[in-house]
């Protein structure tokens, strides 16, 4: 039997594929279990490696391999992760589940125009899903208590937060016990993609595993963040060689 967790640089990833992940988390939602999903790519792994407090959050979360670099790292270290489980595709899959079961959904984060446009698009695409709240990510620390209370009172089955990494996961972990959400998931730039403000890489780029390069070419300002990729590769290979010796 394939083990359900693979560890990449001390981050515990689920080894489930996309469909199996959706089915497993859906079962958890229906049984009332709270689940904090972290969509982790090489950049997130390196943050967790260097930030002890964030690593503690990740260790307690349901971590999915959002990034082809994670799949390659698993291959290099002989671990059973065989496919990406991307945040934007998970969001769409759970919205489809919300549409099927009439679940409540709360959308948090992104710019004001982006979040409202994403809300309108998701409402039209999944008319039976109940979007019980919507708030942009440009709020002051003193507003957090009111936002948490609003989400708690709405009691959504699904809470999607686009506050940037690692902030989105730190925020949800901080208020985990107060938020009445069965599933809390950081979705990064997913609302930008859904709203059409940012174009996802064409399918051919995705199949060639070059989505990261497409995003860098489209947004050159991301170059500093992309430096995490070669650092991640070198660190994984260094640990592999160290374990062999």
Write the layout of secondary structure elements.
Layout: E1 5-8, E2 11-14, H1 18-30, E3 35-40, H2 42-50, H3 52-59, E4 62-65, H4 68-76, H5 87-101, E5 104-109, H6 112-125, E6 130-135, H7 144-154, E7 158-162, H8 167-174, E8 183-186, H9 190-195, H10 203-207, H11 211-218, H12 223-226, H13 228-244
Helix pairs in contact: 2-3, 2-13
Q: What are its keywords?
A:
single chain, 245 residues, alpha/beta, six-stranded parallel beta sheet, two-stranded antiparallel ribbon, 13 helices, 8 strands, 16% strand, transferase, TagA_TarA, N-acetylglucosaminyldiphosphoundecaprenol N-acetyl-beta-D-mannosaminyltransferase activity, teichoic acid biosynthesis, WecG_TagA_CpsF
Question: What is the structure about, briefly put?
Answer:
52% of the residues lie in helices and 16% in strands.
């Amino acid at each position: 039997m394939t083990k359900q967790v693979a560890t990449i640089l001390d981050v515990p990833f689920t080894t489930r594929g996309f469909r199996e992940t959706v089915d497993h988390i859906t079962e958890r939602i229906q049984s009332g279990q709270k689940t904090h999903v972290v969509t982790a790519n090489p950049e997130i792994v390196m943050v967790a490696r260097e930030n002890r407090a964030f690593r503690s959050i990740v260790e307690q979360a349901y971590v999915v391999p959002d990034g082809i670099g994670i799949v390659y790292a698993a291959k290099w270290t002989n671990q059973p992760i065989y496919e990406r489980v991307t945040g934007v595709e998970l969001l769409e899959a759970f919205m489809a589940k919300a549409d099927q079961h009439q679940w409540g959904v709360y959308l948090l984060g992104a710019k004001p125009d982006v979040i409202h446009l994403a809300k309108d698009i998701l409402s039209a695409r999944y008319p039976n899903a109940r979007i019980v709240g919507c708030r942009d990510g440009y709020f002051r620390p003193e507003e957090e208590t009111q936002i948490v209370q609003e989400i708690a009172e709405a009691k959504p089955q699904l809470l999607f937060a686009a506050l940037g990494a690692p902030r989105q996961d730190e925020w949800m972990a901080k208020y985990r016990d107060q938020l009445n959400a069965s599933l809390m998931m950081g979705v990064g730039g997913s609302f930008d993609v859904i709203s059409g403000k940012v174009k996802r890489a064409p399918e051919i780029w995705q199949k060639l595993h070059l989505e990261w390069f497409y995003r860098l070419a489209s947004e050159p300002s991301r170059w500093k963040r992309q430096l995490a990729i070669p650092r991640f590769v070198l660190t994984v290979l260094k640990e592999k060689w160290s374990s062999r010796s």
